[in-house]
């Protein structure tokens, strides 16, 4: 068995003295693990860092084996962002989330594209938190739990959708949601697609929304919680006034 | 299964040696044979040295270094600058800095780096003791000599956040071109960091 694809490193674990078991997010194979011989060597240690884009060739005798990766550097996570505490917290949160929930060995090109876009914009703190919320909504959709934000769950209207039902994940219009507004999630306009026109509190509302459904639909059934790294990221974003 | 050529004592020795970094079963066998051949000049002194070290070596309760005494020689030395603390991940990093003989302050060994993915949390590392040392006063600068990895950066940001409130200056060692390094052979990240850290010449 052999394939070659691009991938983004999301997790690296030392294996033995000199090797590493890594997890990549790839467009065609989804989250895919493999052993990298010499993965802890001077040459590869820098390449095998979360967020780095690589060219990977995977080989194994049988399809369900762990297999071996041969890795070439492609597009590294910008080194200068290591000094950016917000970017690092975002990278940690997104990689941890992917490592926990991204489907293994299934093609998810949209998820890969969304993660690539998120990583590529990590140097722009005005943009990436909103991108991260869309990435999380996309992750839900790729897992089969997409939010239905096109029309009101109660009336079917497509305008004035400002709430989301915490049970169904469907949008609710302002008029229909008024009696229950304390129990509904706020739906920021940019989460419905189109160019983000961020208003104060929008990103925080979007993180609350995606966090709720990631927990309720994806993590809790497998007895998991949202990663601590995500809570740390939200704390840092709040301190920096980016929520 | 074939009978072992050596007795259980030698097999045990080989099995233990094979657990050392850099040694596999074959090289452990060769090392064991060498030890046996040079029993008086190598094996017995090595066994005594190991027993002595196992008996005496302690983790310094102040900085996390390893030494035969507590506090360690570096913490106890009156020649070291008290106002400087260099924070490193592992004792091996401390030894590397000491080899360079370029630093005359104190150290603090964390015992690893924070890792969101592997679940290494602040309480798993020797960070609380560092904060206590900084809080006790007399520290003007904490130098972060951590690895240039995502985990190293995460740790650096966490420590900086914790120390900021104490009014301690936090610096980081420079990143860039190593001695004898040719630009053509450097990775993109190192080159970018080197350019970012340029200074008047």
Task: Describe the 3D structure.
The complex is a heterodimer of chains A (243) and B (201). Chain A has helices at residues 42-45, 85-101, 109-120, 128-142, 174-177, 202-219, 228-239, and strands spanning 2-15, 19-26, 30-36, 53-59, 68-75, 161-164, 171-173, 185-186. With 243 residues, chain A is α+β, with helices and mostly antiparallel strands. Chain A folds into two domains: 2-76, Nucleic acid-binding proteins (OB fold (Dihydrolipoamide Acetyltransferase, E2P), Beta Barrel); 82-149 and 187-239, no CATH class. In chain A, the strands form two sheets. In chain A, strands 3-2-1-4-5 form a five-stranded antiparallel sheet. In chain A, strands 7-6-8 form a three-stranded antiparallel sheet. In chain A, a hairpin with an 8-residue loop joins β4 (53-59) and β5. In chain A, α3 packs antiparallel against α4 (128-142) and α4 (128-142) runs parallel beside α6. The longest helix of chain A is centred in the C-terminal third of the chain and has 18 residues, at 202-219. By secondary structure, chain B is an alpha/beta fold. Chain B has two domains: 8-55, Helicase, Ruva Protein, domain 3 (Orthogonal Bundle); 81-200, Dna Topoisomerase Vi A Subunit, Chain: A, domain 2. Chain B has helices at 8-17, 25-37, 39-56, 73-76, 91-100, 127-135, 150-164, 188-196; strands at 58-59, 66-67, 81-88, 105-109, 141-144, 169-172. In chain B, the strands form two sheets. A four-stranded parallel sheet of chain B has the order 4-3-5-6. A two-stranded antiparallel sheet of chain B has the order 1-2. In chain B, α1 (8-17) packs across α2. The longest helix of chain B has 18 residues, at 39-56. Chain B is globular, with a radius of gyration of 22 Å. Classes of the chains: A alpha+beta (243), B alpha/beta (201). Chains A and B meet through β1, α2 and α7 of A and α7 and α8 of B.
């Amino acid at each position: 068995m052999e394939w070659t694809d691009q991938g983004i490193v999301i997790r690296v674990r030392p294996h033995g003295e000199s090797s590493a078991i890594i997890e990549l997010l790839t467009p065609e194979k989804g989250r895919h693990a493999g052993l990298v011989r010499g993965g802890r060597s001077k040459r590869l240690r820098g390449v095998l860092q979360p967020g780095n884009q690589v060219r990977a060739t995977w080989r194994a005798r049988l399809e369900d084996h762990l297999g071996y990766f041969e890795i070439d550097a492609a597009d590294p996570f910008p080194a200068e962002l290591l000094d950016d505490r917000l970017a690092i917290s975002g990278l940690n949160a997104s990689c941890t989330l992917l490592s926990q929930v991204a489907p293994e060995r299934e093609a998810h090109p949209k998820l890969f594209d969304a993660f690539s876009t998120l990583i590529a914009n990590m140097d722009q703190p005005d943009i990436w938190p909103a991108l991260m919320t869309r990435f999380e909504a996309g992750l839900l959709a790729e897992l089969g739990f997409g939010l239905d934000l096109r029309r009101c769950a109660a009336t079917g209207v497509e305008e004035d959708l400002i709430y989301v039902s915490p049970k169904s994940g469907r949008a609710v219009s302002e008029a229909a949601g008024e009696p229950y507004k304390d129990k509904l999630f706020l739906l920021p306009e940019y989460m419905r697609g189109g160019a983000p026109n961020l208003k104060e509190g929008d990103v925080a509302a979007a993180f609350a929304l995606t966090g709720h459904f990631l927990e309720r639909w994806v993590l809790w059934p497998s007895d998991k919680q949202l990663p601590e790294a995500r809570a740390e990221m939200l704390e840092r974003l709040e301190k920096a006034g980016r929520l | 299964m074939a009978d072992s050529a050596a007795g259980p004592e030698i097999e045990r020795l080989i099995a233990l040696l094979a657990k050392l970094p850099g040694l596999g079963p074959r090289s452990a066998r060769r090392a064991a044979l060498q030890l046996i051949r040079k029993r008086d000049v190598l094996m017995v002194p090595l066994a005594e040295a190991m027993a002595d070290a196992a008996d005496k070596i302690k983790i310094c309760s102040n900085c996390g270094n390893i030494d035969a005494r507590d506090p360690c020689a570096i913490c106890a030395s009156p020649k070291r600058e008290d106002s400087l603390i260099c924070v490193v991940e592992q004792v091996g990093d401390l030894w590397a800095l000491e080899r360079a003989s370029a630093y005359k302050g104190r150290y603090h060994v964390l015992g690893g780096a924070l890792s969101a993915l592997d679940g290494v949390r602040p309480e798993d590392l020797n960070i609380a003791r560092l904060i206590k040392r900084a809080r006790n006063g007399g520290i003007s600068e904490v130098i972060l000599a951590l690895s240039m990895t995502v985990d190293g950066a995460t740790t650096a940001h966490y420590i900086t956040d914790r120390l900021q409130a104490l009014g301690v200056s936090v610096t980081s060692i420079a990143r860039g071109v190593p001695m004898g390094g040719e630009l053509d052979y450097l990775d993109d990240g190192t080159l970018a960091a080197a350019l970012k850290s340029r200074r008047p010449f």
